[in-house]
C-alpha cells in the first residue's frame, strides 16, 4: 500500500531522520522523498512517498503519533489509493458561485465519485450552496477579509479530507498549508491559460494581448513558488473579433471554468492522473 | 471609395510629400497615414488610407504612375472594398500540404468567396496541389533552399492579388515585402497560440511547458518587428494528460491548423474584419 | 528648421488634412508623419516632423492657430533645435526627493545646460526642493491622491516647456498628454532595468528573481501602450549574495537612480540623442 | 563533517533506501535529501547532504563502495569543507579563450585559492592555454563536434575534482552529469543577464531589445530544467546610444565575462557562498 507522509517543522534539522527511521524499520521502501528549507518563510518540510505492507498500518500510525508528540513536527499520513470509501473533498470558495456549484452538482449526480465533506469560505456569498446541497458550511473569514489558514487545515484534518478543491478561492495558501497537504491533494482552478496568463486578472491580460482564445486551467498546487504548473485539465473557448470583454468573462465564468474544474477533479478522483515527483502523470491511458 | 496606398523608397526624404500632394489635390481625405524609417534594414516606407471620389480613380492611377516614374518609389494602390470581382488570393506554402489544401478546397466549395490566383512555394512538395485544384504553380525556390522574395511580389503584382496567404510558408518575409502589401493584405497561419508561443516550434514549446491546450493563430502580418500580433482567428484543442507530442502535432497539423486558417481567410474575404491603425477591428458584429 | 507638430482631436477624420495642407503650402517637407486612432481610449492624434524655412515661422504659427480655432484640434508646434535659449524643463515628482533634487542640482551646477521652469507634483513631499532651488512650485494633486493631468499640460504650455522630466513621478500620464508632448519631449526615470522589469516594484521583482544586478532606465515616453522602450540611459549596480532588499533599494534610490536620470537628461538637452521614428538615435557618436 | 552524496541509477526504486540506511546506521544526520525521477530522460537520482562524525569516514566510503557494487548505482561522496588541500577545478571550454584564460591566471596569481586540475574541451582552440599555464589538457571532442559527456565525468572522478567550471563551454551537460556533480559543484558562466536573457545569443537579444546595459552571470547549474537560476555573481557594463553590437560583444567577451567568472569562482572557492536547498546562500556576510 502506498502512503504519502508529510512533515512540517520548526527547522530543517531533525525533520527527515525520525520518519525515515520509522518507515525503514517497518520494512517500507522509500519511493520518493523531498525536503524543503526556506529560511525567509520559516517553512521547513518533507514529503515522502513509501510502499508499506498494509499489515503494518497500525504500527505506522502509532510510530508517527509518537514522533509527532516527541518532536513537535506536524505530520500527516495519507493513503492515496484506499478502496474502503470514496475520497472526501473540501471545496473552498470566496465570491463566485459557478465553480463550487458545478463541483457540488457533479458529486450529487455521480459524475465525480466523491463525498463533499465541507464547503469552506472566507466570505458569506456561497453559504446558500451549502444549504442547497446539504454540505457542512465552514466560515474561515476574518473581519479584515483575510482567511484563517490554520482553521482550514484543522477542518480538513478533522474531516479526513483527501483533496482540497480551490474553486475560485481568492486567497493564496501559505507554504505551510501547501506542504501539509502536499503530494497532489490540493487542486486549484485558475481562470486563465497557464503558464501564459498567471496573474490575478487573466481575462483582462489575454484581452489586452488581443487574443481570441480564453481558457481555464485545473492544476495541482505544488508547495514551491518557483515550481512549474502541474496541469490536470485545460479547457478553452474562442470568440469572434469585437466580442466585448464582459461577454468573454461571462462565458468563461459561467460555462468554461465550471466544466474545466469538474473534469479536472474527476480525473484525480478516478485516479486517471496523479502527482509523481512534481509532475502530473497519466495512470490510465 | 477607400484606397490604400503604400510606398517603399530608398530613403525617408521625399517619401510622403508627392503622394500626399496628389491625394489632396484630387480632393481626397487622409484617413490614416504611417511612415516607417529603419536605417539598419534600409527600409523606408509609408502607408496611407484615403477616401476618394471613385470618379477620380483614373486620375489617381495616372498621378501615382507619374510619381513612381519620377521618384523611383515603389508604389501600390489597392481598393479593399471593390465589388466588381472576387478577391484574388496568392497561397504561399513550403512543406506542409494540409493548410494550403484546406484553403484551396474552401475556395472550390465556395466557403471562401475568393479566387485562387496562384500557389507559390520555395519547395516542390505542394506542386501536386496546384494540379489537383487547377491553380497556377509558381516556384520561387532557390538552390540553397531560400526564396526569391522579389519574385513573390512580382507575381502578386502581375496577377492583381488582393491577399497573400502564408499557409505554413516557412520563410520570413523581408520588411520591404511586408510594406509593399501593408494595410491588412498578408495573412499568416502560425501553428501556436500567440502571443504566448511565438517561436519556430510552438508545439514543442507548449509541450515543454506541460500544457494540455494547443492552438493555432491566423493573423495579419504588420511590417514592424515590434508590433503586436493582429489576430483574426484562433482555434484550440485540448488533450488528455499523457498524450504524446507526436499525436498532438498530428492533430494540430491535420485538423486544427486547416480549420483555423480557412475561417480566418473567410473572415477577411467576407470583410467581417479588417486592419485599422494596426488593430484588427470587427466590421460586422 | 525642424518643427514637430502634434495634434489631438475628437476623432480621426479631419485630423491630418488641415495640418498637412498648411505645411505643404508653406513649402515644408514632411520628414515623418504618424497617426494614432484608438477608439477605446477616445484618443485620436497625429505627429508630424517637418522641415520648413524659418522665414515662414510666423506664417506657420498663424495658420496653426487658425486651424486650431476652426477645427477644435489641440495642436502644438515645437522646435527641437532652437538656439536662442536654453531648453526649459518641467520636473515632475511625487514622493521621492532624490531624483528631482539631482536634476535640479545638475542644472544649478551647469552639468545640465537647461532652465528649471517648474517643479510639478501631486503631493507635498518635494515642496522644499522648490524653495531650496528657487524654482516655481505647482501642486496638481487632488484630494483623492490623483493628479490633474490637464493642469500639468496647461502649466507646460504656459511656461514654454521643452521637456517634461518624470522624476519618480508616480502617476501614469494619460495617452492624450503623451501625444500632446510627443516627439521625444517626455523623459521618464524607471527604477528598474527595462524591458526585463517593467512593473511598479522592479526592485522587488528582480530580488524575487534572485538577481544580483539592479538598475535604472531613463527613457522617452512614446504614446502607444504597445511600443518598446526608448532607452536613453541605463545604469546598474551589483550586490553580493545575501544583501538585503532594503539595502539594495537604498543604494538604488540614493545613488543609482539620480545618476541615471541626470546623465539621461543631459544627453537629451545636449542633443546627443533624439527620438526618430520611435527609436532613440545617437546624433553625435 | 558535511558530506554530499549523489546517486544516479537505472530506476527510482531502490535508489534511496540503501544510502539512507548506510548513513543512519553510521549515526549520521540527514540535513537535506532530494530525489528526481524523469522517465522521459531515463534519469533517476538522489542527493543527500548529511552530517557525519569524521571518524566514520572510512566506514562510509566502504559501505558506499559495497552499495555501488551490489546495486549498480553510480554514487559519489563529496566533502565540501575539507581543509587538507585546496579545491581542485576542472575548467571546461570550447572556442572562446578569454574566460578560461582569466580563471587560469587568477589561480596562478592566487586570487582564486584553488588548483587547476584539468582543462577539458571538445575543440582544439584553447589547447595553447594548457601549455601556457602547464595544466593537463583533455580533449573530449568527437569528430561530429559533440562532446563525450561520460569522459568528462570520468576525468573529474579520476582527478578528484571538486568544482567543474564551464567557461563558455558551448555544450549542454546531460542531466545525468548534472546529478553526478550536484550540490553546488558545477559553475557556469552565461554571457547575458539571467533570468532576462537566457538564450544562446544574449548579446543579440539584449541589443534587439534596445538595451544599453549588458551583463554576464555566474551561476550554479542545478540538475532540473525547470529550476531557477542560482546566481553567484553578476557584472554589467553600460554603453552609449549608437554603440555597435560588435563593439558591445567585444567589451563583454574581453572584459566583463572574465571578471564575472573569476569573482564568481572565487566566492565559491573561498566558501563565501554555497548551494543550500537549490538556493545560493551567503555563508559570510
UniProtKB/TrEMBL annotation, chains A, B, C, D:
One example GO MF annotation: formyltetrahydrofolate deformylase activity
Keyword Hydrolase: yes
Root EC class: hydrolase
Example of a GO biological process term: 'de novo' IMP biosynthetic process
InterPro entries per UniProt: ACT-like_dom_sf, Formyl_transf_N, Formyl_transf_N_sf, PurU
Formyl transferase N-terminal domain ranges (all copies): 97-261
The enzyme's E.C. designation: 3.5.1.10
Keywords: Hydrolase, One-carbon metabolism
PANTHER family in alphabetical order: FORMYLTETRAHYDROFOLATE DEFORMYLASE, FORMYLTETRAHYDROFOLATE DEFORMYLASE 2, MITOCHONDRIAL
Protein name per its UniProtKB record: Formyltetrahydrofolate deformylase
Annotated source species: Lacipirellula limnantheis
Amino acid at each position: 500500500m502506498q502512503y504519502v507522509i508529510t512533515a512540517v517543522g520548526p527547522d530543517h534539522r531533525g525533520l527527515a531522520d525520525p520518519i525515515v527511521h520509522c518507515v525503514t524499520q517497518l520494512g517500507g521502501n522509500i519511493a520518493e522523498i523531498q525536503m524543503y528549507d526556506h529560511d525567509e518563510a520559516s517553512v521547513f518540510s518533507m514529503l515522502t512517498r513509501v510502499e508499506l505492507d498494509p499489515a503494518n498500518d497500525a504500527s505506522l500510525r502509532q510510530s508517527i503519533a509518537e514522533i509527532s508528540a516527541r518532536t513537535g513536527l506536524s505530520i500527516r499520513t495519507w493513503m492515496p489509493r484506499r478502496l474502503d470509501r470514496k475520497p472526501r473533498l473540501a471545496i473552498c470558495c470566496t465570491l463566485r458561485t459557478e465553480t463550487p456549484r458545478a463541483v457540488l452538482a457533479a458529486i450529487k449526480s455521480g459524475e465525480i465519485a466523491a463525498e463533499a465533506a465541507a464547503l469552506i469560505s472566507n466570505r458569506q456569498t456561497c453559504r446558500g450552496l451549502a444549504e442547497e446541497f446539504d454540505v457542512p458550511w465552514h466560515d474561515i473569514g476574518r473581519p479584515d477579509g483575510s482567511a484563517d489558514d490554520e482553521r482550514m487545515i484543522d477542518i480538513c484534518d478533522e474531516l479526513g479530507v483527501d483533496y482540497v478543491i480551490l474553486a475560485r478561492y481568492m486567497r493564496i495558501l501559505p507554504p505551510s498549508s501547501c506542504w501539509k497537504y502536499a503530494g497532489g491533494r490540493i487542486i486549484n482552478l485558475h481562470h486563465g491559460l497557464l503558464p501564459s496568463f498567471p496573474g490575478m486578472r487573466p481575462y483582462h491580460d489575454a484581452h489586452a494581448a488581443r487574443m481570441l482564445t480564453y481558457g481555464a486551467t485545473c492544476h495541482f498546487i505544488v508547495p514551491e513558488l518557483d515550481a512549474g504548473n502541474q496541469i490536470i485539465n485545460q479547457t478553452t473557448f474562442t470568440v469572434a473579433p469585437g466580442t466585448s470583454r464582459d461577454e468573454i468573462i461571462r462565458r468563461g465564468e459561467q460555462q468554461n471554468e465550471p466544466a474545466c474544474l469538474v473534469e479536472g477533479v474527476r480525473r484525480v478522483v478516478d485516479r486517471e492522473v496523479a502527482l509523481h515527483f512534481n509532475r502530473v502523470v497519466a495512470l490510465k491511458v
